[in-house]
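Appendix B. One record, verbatim.
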Amino acid sequence: MSTPGPATTSPWMTLCPFGTVEIDSRSIDAGTADQLNPHLPVVLIDQRPFSRRRLRRLARGLSIEVEREFIVLPTLHRPLMLIDDTEAAVRHFWSAVATVPPGLAFTAGPATALLALARILPWSWTGGVAPGRALVGRRS
């Protein structure tokens, strides 16, 4: 468990009230739940693939009511963008934000094909397999 860091290290903290506690799922121990006060704002983070299921299970175990979930791209340690894990936000990302960078010569074809595939797959796969995730909630 860690205390709130500066916004430059955790951009999701700017979306949270003062006093929010950030918990990395890899560093949680048995006593963590005892340290969390009721109604305490909490952010659970995870950088491993398939983190959605893991963080939701952890939130249930810590009695955290989930308010928002973010997909963090490309990683928690070097975040460039937060995407709400909602259908509208994820579809907007794939249709209006994600693109093949200019200057790719021999990889432009495969990159374009992967992007086209991402656009036709169900929106929920993005949050399901993306490793970087921040779950915002409040202890009940």
